[in-house]
Amino acid sequence: MELRHLRSFMAVAEGLSFRGAAERLRVAQPSLSAQIKGLEAELGVRLFDRSTRSVRLTPAGRLLVEAAKTVLAASARAEERVRAAEHGLAGTLRVGVIAPAANAWLAGILRAYRQRFRGVQFSLFDLTSTEQLRRLHAGELDAGLLRPPILFPELAYKFVAESRQVLAVPAGHRLARKRRVEWRDFDDEELVLVDPNAQHGFYDAFLGECAKAGAHPRPVQYANDIQTKMWLISAGFGIAPTTATLGEVKRPGLVFRPLPPGLPPVQTILAWRRDDASPALKQFCDSFQDYGR
């Protein structure tokens, strides 16, 4: 049973006229009659009672009308989604996001994209830069918001945002009360860090500036992710540099202070596989052009 046979059947069933159905379908009436006879032979039932004066649906024909409506409607929806996907209007995007990028800026981009392409669904994953690179390389993500550098030549990327670094300290800590923090102030301070292997070199510039000033802070606690790191700092486990975007979220027991001059801004890039021709992905990447900050 082919879709064209069901469409021919429905054209006859809706008007109960072979001549009228043939005119609407723009086919010869004998060809239409042959299609219906072929469908009846395939199903082994009569679908219409025909006479010289009228055409009526048989009980089997009435049942096929309901089934044909369902099948043809599903076919129409499938065709619509396929055409939409070809133009980037449907599908699913798997996007990795580092915690500092999950903020109002990203929400604005997703909101604008959603308004234009409502057929595209998002699967968002809170992942470190290192894990995002691994999944992009393995084809398990379509795009990722992460820190440079990019380690795989098959990945394309674009700069989308940057943020200055600030110091996160527990409320009541001596550096929270200090008018101006200097690099030498970090000597022997206890640090709470995310696993350096997952942080993709994030702490290198901070530790380098400390070393130049003769200060030697001590990593004493490692966290599995950024949010746990912030919680441990607020609980008094130590201090750490972080991005200013994380300071936009107020947390009890946590204070953010400016760091001394010398640190470059922290970049966020959008990465994707060069050979991915998905129109939905292209539209998503293009949506960042007007939002970089």
Structure overview:
This protein has 293 residues and is α/β, with parallel strands linked by helices. The protein folds into three domains: 84 residues, Arc Repressor Mutant, subunit A (Orthogonal Bundle), CATH 1.10.10.10; 90 residues, Periplasmic binding protein-like II (D-Maltodextrin-Binding Protein, domain 2), CATH 3.40.190; 100 residues, D-Maltodextrin-Binding Protein, domain 2 (3-Layer(aba) Sandwich), CATH 3.40.190.290. It contains eleven helices and twelve strands. The chain has a five-stranded mixed beta sheet with strand order 4-3-5-12-6. The protein has a three-stranded antiparallel beta sheet with strand order 10-7-11. Strands 1-2 form a two-stranded antiparallel sheet. The longest helix has 28 residues. The mean pLDDT is 89.
Question: Secondary-structure blueprint of this entry?
Answer:
Layout: H1 3-15, H2 18-25, H3 29-43, E1 48-50, E2 55-57, H4 59-86, E3 90-97, H5 104-116, E4 119-126, H6 129-138, E5 143-146, E6 155-163, E7 165-170, H7 174-177, E8 190-194, H8 196-199, H9 204-212, E9 218-223, H10 226-234, E10 240-243, E11 254-258, E12 266-273, H11 279-286
Parallel strand pairs: 3-4, 3-5, 8-9
Antiparallel strand pairs: 1-2, 5-12, 6-12, 7-10, 7-11
